[in-house]
Amino acid sequence: MIRSVVVGWGAELPGNPVTNDDLVARGVETSDAWIAQRTGIRQRYIADAGITTSTLAFMAAQRALAKAGVPASSVDMLIVATTTPDQTFPSTATRVQGLLGMDTAPAFDVQAVCSGFVYALSIADSFIRCGQARRVLVIGAETFSRLLDWSDRNTCVLFGDGAGALLLEAAEGEGTMADRGVLSSRLYADGSKNELLCMTGGPSSTQDMGHLQMTGREVFRWAVQRMAESAILALEEAGISPDQVDWLVPHQANIRILQSTAERIGIPEEKVIITVEHHGNTSAASIPLALCEAAENGKIKAGQLLLLEAMGGGFTWGSALLRW
Ligand code: ACO
Predict the structure, then answer these.
(1) Strand residues in the chain grouped as ranges (E)
(2) Confidence at residue 184, expressed as pLDDT on a 0 to 100 scale
(3) Mean pLDDT (10-residue bins), the chain, 324 residues
(4) Is 194 a catalytic residue?
(5) What is the CATH number of the domain that holds 163?
(6) What is the pLDDT of residue 275?
(7) pTM of this structure
(8) Using a 6 Å cutoff on CB, does residue 311 contact ligand 1?
(9) Among this protein's residues, is 281 annotated catalytic?
(10) Of the four listed, 78, 217, 222, 234, which is most buried by Cβ atoms within 10 Å?
C-alpha cells in the first residue's frame, strides 16, 4: 500500500517577536496578564510591509526541500493552505511554484481557514495514494495580521504570521497502523456557522476585504467539541487508544482550547505540542509550524504517532493520524 511519508519540513517566522507588552505600547487597550490568562499567548510574529504570504511560504518550502535533500524540480505538486493570499488571483501556490522554479507542476491554494493545513494534507495524501503524484509540498502560510482590525482588542491580540511546509513522498507500506506516513484523515464542514467567525467583506460581496469578526465564546465551545469528536472518531476508526498516541498536535488557537480538547480525548498535557505562547494563532500555518518546531527541538522523533486536529471559520474542522 502506498503511504505519504514526511521526508522534509521547514518553517519561517517573519522578523522579531511582538510581545503582548509591545501591543500595549502600540496603543492596543489590553495587558500581558489578560492575554496570557485567557489565551496563553505571550508573543506573535508580524510581517513587515513588503513581506507577503508567498514570501513566507517560499522560505518554508526551500527549507523543507533542503531537509529532504531533493530539488524543487522533483516535486510533482504544490498546495498552499492560506486565508491571506498575496492577491485574489493568481493563487499564492502558483507564485511559490514560480519562485521555486518548478516548471509545470500543478499548484493551487486551499481555503479552509485554520483547518486549511489538515485539508491540504488530506488532499496531498489522496493524490499520492492514487498514484497521481510522488512528491507533494504541503504548505500552510499566513500573513493574518493583515486581516486584523487593530482597534478591536477582542481579536487583534490573538493572531500572528508565519509559514510551515512538509514535503510528502510516496513510500511502500504494509497497510497497517505501524506504517510511517499519513495513516488516515477526516475532514468536516458546517456552513450554517459562517457568521460566528468570518471576514465582513470580499471581492464578490463588498469589493473590499472587510475585517475579522468573531463570536469568541461560541467559537471556543464549538472548537473544543468539534476537534475532540473528530479526533476521538479518528482513533476509534484506526483501533488506536489515546495512550498509543505519542503527540497531539492541535491547531494552536488558544491554550485553553488545547487543554480542554486534550482532556476530552484523554491525552495528558505533557503529550500536547504547544507553540501558541510564542506564535499566537497563525491559522493554516499553526500545525506545520508546531510540527517543525517540535521536530527541530527533538520532541517529535521518526516513527512516532501524531494526532493532528484543527477547526476554523466556516466552520471547517478535521483530524489526521500521521506516523512521523
Ligand atoms: N484585553 C483586555 N480586555 C479584553 C480584551 C483584551 N485583549 N479583549 C476583550 N476584553 C474584555 C472584554 O471587553 C470584556 O470586558 P467587559 O466584561 O467589560 O465587557 C472582558 O474582557 C471579557 O470578555 P469575554 O469575551 O467574555 O472574554 P472570554 O473569557 O470569552 O475570552 C476570548 C475571550 C479569549 C476571545 C475567548 O472567547 C476565546 O478564546 N475564544 C476562542 C476564540 C479563538 O481562539 N479564535 C481563534 C480563531 S478560531 C480557531 O482558531 C479555532
Answers:
(1) 2-12, 17-19, 43-45, 77-81, 107-110, 135-143, 161-172, 181-189, 197-199, 212-214, 247-250, 305-312, 316-323
(2) 96
(3) 98 96 97 98 97 98 98 98 98 98 97 98 98 98 96 96 98 97 97 96 96 95 97 95 98 97 98 98 98 98 98 98 98
(4) no
(5) 3.40.47.10
(6) 98
(7) 0.97
(8) yes
(9) yes
(10) 78
CB of 254 closer than 6 angstroms to any ligand 1 atom? yes
Active site residue 211: no
Instruction: Quote the number of domains for the chain.
Output: 2
Reduced to 3 states (helix: H, G, I; strand: E, B; else coil), residue 308 is strand
Task: For cell 510591509, name the residue.
Answer: 49
Supply φ then ψ for residue 174, to 5 degrees.
-90, -10
Residue 112, pLDDT score: 98
Q: Cite the DSSP H helix spans in 159-318.
A: 216-238, 255-265, 276-279, 286-296
Do 25 and 168 lie in a common domain? yes
Q: Are residues 45 and 154 in the same domain?
A: yes
Does one domain contain both 153 and 18?
Answer: yes
Q: Are residues 136 and 197 in the same domain?
A: no
Pair 204, 300 in one domain: yes
Burial (CB < 10 A; 0-12, 13-18, 19+), residue 42, is middle
pLDDT of residue 189: 98
113 Cα nearest atom in ligand 1: 50
